[in-house]
């Protein structure tokens, strides 16, 4: 199975998601999107594949979201993509792509449904235990 994760190593949720992928036996393509942001077309493809509006891909916390007034519904999808290209930190994370689908994995255990051999249980960095059986 091919697995790609749009990852931010400074984010605990992203690190937990990556660890769950690796513990399932997969070695994903890791794209540190702050260093190598996806382009306009790729962002649109990801939104379509997830079946979500572009706006759902915006991250508010720890970003210039409020400063840029991105809550205002006046912004078109094209304009929102432009903001994400100019400020990649605005892209919600982590986004995982597999043969089973594409998803923003917040919380991190959402990745389990995208894997062929998910771990039965996983201990997150904060000590929380999650798994297929317990969800």
Comma- or semicolon-separated keywords:
single chain, 135 residues, alpha+beta, Glutaredoxin, 4-stranded mixed beta sheet, two-stranded antiparallel sheet, 6 strands, 15% strand, globular
Task: Walk me through what this model shows.
The protein has 135 residues and is an alpha+beta fold. It has one domain: Glutaredoxin. The chain has three helices and six strands; from the N terminus they run βαβααββββ. The radius of gyration is 15 Å and the shape is globular. The two termini are 23 Å apart. The model has no long low-confidence stretch (mean pLDDT 95).
Which class in CATH terms? Alpha Beta
Strand content: 5-15%
State the strand order across the main sheet.
Answer: 2-1-3-4
Helix content percent band: 10-25%
Instruction: Outline the low-pLDDT stretches.
Output: none
Secondary structure class reads alpha+beta
CATH 4th-level superfamily:
Glutaredoxin
Helical stretch tally: 3
Shape: globular
If classified by CATH, what would the architecture be? 3-Layer(aba) Sandwich
Distance between the termini: 23 Å
- The structural domain count equals 1
Largest sheet: 4 strands, mixed
How would you summarize this macromolecular structure in one to three sentences?
The protein has helices spanning about 10-25, 40-50, 75-85, and strands spanning about 5, 30, 95-100, 100-105, 120-125, 130. With about 140 residues, it is α+β, with helices and mostly antiparallel strands.
What is the topological layout?
Elements: E1 4-7, H1 12-23, E2 29-32, H2 40-50, H3 77-86, E3 95-98, E4 101-104, E5 122-123, E6 129-130
């Amino acid at each position: 199975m091919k697995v790609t994760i749009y990852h931010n190593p400074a984010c605990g949720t992203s690190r937990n998601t990556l660890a769950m992928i690796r513990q399932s036996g997969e070695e994903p393509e890791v794209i540190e999107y702050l260093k190598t942001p996806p382009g306009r077309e790729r962002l649109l493809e990801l939104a379509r594949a997830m079946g979500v509006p572009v706006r759902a891909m915006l991250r508010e916390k720890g970003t210039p979201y409020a400063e840029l007034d991105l809550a205002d519904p006046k912004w078109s999808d094209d304009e929102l993509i432009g903001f994400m290209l100019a400020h990649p930190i605005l892209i919600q994370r982590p986004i995982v792509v597999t043969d089973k689908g594409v998803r923003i994995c917040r919380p991190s255990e959402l990745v389990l449904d995208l894997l062929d051999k998910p771990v039965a249980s996983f201990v997150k960095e904060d000590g929380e235990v999650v798994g297929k059986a317990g969800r």
